[in-house]
Design brief:
The chain is mostly helical and 469 residues long. It has a domain of 318 residues. Helices cover 67% and strands 3% of the residues. It has a two-stranded parallel ribbon with strand order 1-4. Helix 5 packs across helix 7 and helix 21 runs antiparallel to helix 22. The longest helix has 25 residues.
């Protein structure tokens, strides 16, 4: 679906077409209102964005979809940190994506094999859904939402974004909006953090240095936004006109991710950037490559001072050490390095082995862990959970996702398209290995990877005013 002209008005016209300094200042002021007066200002802002999105003609809503999702990436986690439930429910991201994609898909004539892959995934989820509904669980709805909505939204996102096209100019705007929308959160997190020198850092993830909320989710989000900042720099899209300021902003997000002591978001970001750099290496001129190399000592300097601030605990954390391994009570292993995730994965595979065909049903595997020598715990690895709870159909889902990734990367000949697809797929998949689908970053980024960045002359252009035709 391509519209020659999109006429925007109101808040979305300002966000996408307004001057960056004004938009940045507004988000900083929003953070100040949240900190100094009331957290409900943020809920009000998200309400305005959602209402303004739906208060448009359908072709405008279609066009705005990736931009509203850019805001949801940070709004989902920030609203949890602010404890805005029930006004903004804890699982707001899952609810919003599900409703939004269903609404868009039912109003769009979507064709093509990629969309059929999304439909196939939904079909493959049906057996485990029926098994879950037949169970005698007292919290079946909660289990379905928490464990099942992530992969459902990913499938719906594949269907919708399989034919979405975005111009280069609007793509740059999308990257900018991802960063800007996260500014209130990083400012709030910095303000809520006590004097770092007073924190007794240990060898576990810690919410003390990031405002007191889930270190895993914040590391995932801030690590991702850091990688978006660097992705811009690789492609010479600077957030600020001054490249030094752009680098400083990237370092701020990386510092907040590091100080969380949750390694997943940081490691995933660097793996994604390495692959992007590898894919883009022929595009980068030698002169620019030398300038980009200056980022490496800056990264080492940041890590050095952050590690020094934590009395060497940060380095030990990334080396996989724990209090037990340092004291000699236990030996370093894959399970200790992965903070228990390796044993959970093995446990999932054992459950799958005993429920090979249909699986246990969505959300039912944690209850069976006690039979395999484990405590009741929800999996942090989405793909092993798919096998345990969906059986052989979960394996087919994984194979389908692999086929999509291979097709998209092989099909994309343009370096920017290919590198962005690699970037999104890497963060989407690797995030699901340490945080499952606790947040919507996996379904959103997997969906974004399917977008085509095309020549601006034949793509949607933002126009002033509103289309009253």
């Amino acid at each position: 679906m391509i519209n020659n002209k999109i006429h925007l008005s109101g808040i979305w016209k300002w966000l996408l077409c307004g001057k960056s300094p004004q938009i940045i200042l507004f988000h900083c002021l929003l953070a100040a209102l949240v900190i100094l007066i009331s957290k409900w200002f943020y809920a009000f802002w998200i309400g305005i964005l959602v209402f303004s999105y739906f208060n448009n003609k359908f072709k405008v809503q279609f066009f705005l979809t990736p931009f509203i999702l850019a805001n949801i990436l940070s709004a989902e986690v920030f609203s949890r940190a602010l404890k805005l439930n029930p006004i903004i429910p804890y699982e707001f991201g899952k609810y919003f994506l599900f409703v939004l994609f269903i609404y868009l898909i039912t109003r769009t004539n979507i064709k093509g094999s990629l969309a059929r892959y999304g439909l196939l995934i939904l079909f493959l989820l049906l057996p485990s859904l029926f098994i879950s509904l037949l169970s005698e669980s007292d919290a079946i709805l909660k289990e379905l939402i928490f464990n099942g909505f992530g992969i459902v939204n990913l499938a719906l996102g594949i269907i919708f974004f399989s034919q979405y096209k975005i111009s280069l100019h609007n793509f740059k705007t999308l990257l900018r909006l991802i960063i800007i929308s996260t500014l209130p959160f990083v400012i709030w997190s910095s303000f809520k953090t006590p004097d770092l020198s007073s924190i007794d850092f240990s060898l576990t993830s810690s919410a003390s240095g990031i405002g007191g909320f889930s270190s895993n989710q914040i590391s995932t989000l801030f690590g991702f936004v850091f990688s978006v900042c660097v992705f811009q720099i690789i492609n010479k899209y600077y957030f600020f006109k001054n490249s030094l300021l752009s680098l400083s902003l990237a370092m701020l997000f990386l510092f907040k991710a590091l100080i969380s002591f949750s390694r997943g978001g940081v490691i995933v970001a660097f793996v994604a950037l390495f692959l992007v750099f590898f894919v883009s290496r022929k595009k980068i001129k030698k002169s620019y490559f030398k300038n980009f190399l200056l980022l490496i000592p800056l990264l080492f300097t940041l890590f050095y001072f952050t590690n020094k601030l934590t009395d060497n605990s940060l380095l030990l954390r990334f080396q996989g050490e724990t209090n037990s391994t340092l004291s000699g009570r236990s030996e370093k292993s894959l399970n200790s390095i992965s903070t228990g995730r390796f044993d959970i994965m093995i446990n999932d595979l054992n459950i799958w082995n005993d429920n090979l065909f249909f699986g246990t049903g969505i959300g039912q595997s944690p209850k069976l862990r006690v039979n395999y020598g484990e405590e009741f715990i929800i999996s942090h690895l989405e793909f092993s959970r798919l096998l345990a709870e969906n059986g052989i159909f979960g394996l087919f889902i994984i194979i389908t996702l692999i086929i999509i990734i291979i097709r998209i990367i092989n099909f994309r000949k343009n370096i920017l398209n290919k590198s962005f697809a690699v970037f999104c797929f890497t963060i989407s998949i690797l995030t699901s290995f340490h945080a499952s689908m606790r947040t919507s970053i996996t379904p959103i980024l997997f969906s974004f990877a399917l977008m085509q960045i095309i020549n601006e002359r034949i793509n949607t252009k933002i126009q002033k005013g509103y289309d009253n035709e």
